[in-house]
Amino acid sequence: MNEVLSTKNGASASFSTEEILIDLSSIGSFENILFELTNIIEQSNLRGKNVKINFGDLSLTQNMVSSLQSVLKGFDISIKMIFSSSIETKIAAMEVGLTVSGEKPEIKQQTAASDSIIETQKDEDKLVDAMNNVLAGSHEIVKENTLFIKQNLRSGQKLEHDGNIVIIGDCKAGSEIIATGDITIWGILGGIAHAGSKGDYKAKIRAFRINAIQLRIADLLARKPDAIEMEKMDKHNLFTPEEAKITNGEIVIYTEY
Amino acid sequence: MSGRVIVVTSGKGGVGKTTSTANIGTALAKNGAKVVMIDTDIGLRNLDLLMGLENRIVYTLIDVIEEKCKLQQALVKDKKNPNLALLAAAQTRDKSAASPEQMVEICKQLKEDFDFVMVDCPAGIEQGFQNAIAGATEAIIITTPEMSAVRDADRIIGLLESKEDILNYKLVLNRVRPKMIQSNDMLGVTDVTDILSVKLLGVIPEDENIIISTNRGEPIVNMENTKAGTAYMNIARRIMGEEIEIPDFETPPPTFIDKVKNFFLATASS
């Protein structure tokens, strides 16, 4: 049986036999999140449990996420996964070592339970939720393993994910992407990419153009040649997609595959 | 062996801390010293770019601090000079990832193996600055002949003076344009040393080659016959104890206006 606990301000916690999802997507600020979380914890017995938390589109810094983590730790609660549509939050959560998903969380519950949750939501949200549930059903594998990001990754941003990473956008020099699976970039790769980070020699890195400072696959490393040319701008916007993979113990970039 | 730990700092950004660290470090190594440079500008690292070593960085200062690797593993050897090494900053973290105590420990370990530990300090006076100066016993203050940079340098000197471990600090005046000083459009070398009342270590003339060197990832001291390169080589030799005179940038050769004045004076008197 699923149970749902809702607060006045629209936060909710849903319990099923497998998991606990705390939905804070309608809470607008970090302070309120702390408040709502304490409310939920006071009203339910979460001690010793793993929870999933949905932050919606709220941007949180690394400090905020790690302080939330330590607050929950104080109640002996650990975070299993975070859902967020904000890149800052995702990156912040990844940097403190949490698993992050960009998808809307699938709320595993019976109709009766979801009724009570929807009561606190607007009609628009109902529609969005319904659409997401339909989409979620058809992307089962992707949902489990792949992190989608539709944004440029800039210097200093680091993305780490247990699974594949797909980025729609460029990865600028100074950024870092680490995935246990493949890395696919719908744009130019200029930073550091590490595919198969847990030792998968079959992992691949693909991009419209691979201009990376370093490529790493499993425990192998390839670096950009020293003769640094001034960044060549492709005036015609002609890209030849490139793929890097291990061939005979070396990382090789292929332009045709 | 116990090496010297020298922090390169300025307060204001963009006055040439990183360029000076790269060039003084390279120049010291060219003179035969064993040198390691530490980039403490966590999150905004540049020293690796100026040295052309960006593509060789696997481990960073933060990996050493967090014990993900050994100190020796994180040292990136220079392409040309085996006496020179770089300990890079992490790009994907921020200044709070390191503490002054940890920096003291790292500097202590490094000065066992190196003659010089050059610490490149971030701009500002916050935690990054505190980290950078923590392990140092000497400081080089970089400033340019502009009031804002001089004012910030003064602030930095105040902070350095209040720290007992810093035994010695000297000034490097960067981006000096002798012609502008001579026409009284720029603060002169003595103006700056008077305001700051601090000893001068060297004067670097403005040099377009710096831009070329930065974009190539090759310190200017490795380029032949450049004004700035020579000035940095001299600074390195002064640090190593040689007496080298600092050239005079202030005495103006007779200017056009002087000549005109003299002409009128001469015609008026005749």
Quickly give the structural class of chain A. alpha/beta
User: Which architecture of the largest domain in chain A per CATH?
Assistant: 3 Solenoid
Tell me the number of structural domains of chain A: 2
Strand residue percentage of chain A:
25-35%
Biggest sheet of chain A, open or closed, and with what strands and sense? 6 strands, mixed
CATH superfamily of chain B: P-loop containing nucleotide triphosphate hydrolases
CATH architecture of chain B: 3-Layer(aba) Sandwich
Oligomeric state of shown chains: heterodimer
Work out the helicity level of chain A: 25-40%
State the distance separating the first and last CA atoms of chain B.
Answer: 73 Å
Order of helices and strands of chain B: EHEHHHEEHEHEHEHHEHHH
Most extensive chain contact? A-B, 19 and 16 residues
What ranges of chain B have pLDDT less than 50 throughout 5 or more consecutive residues? none
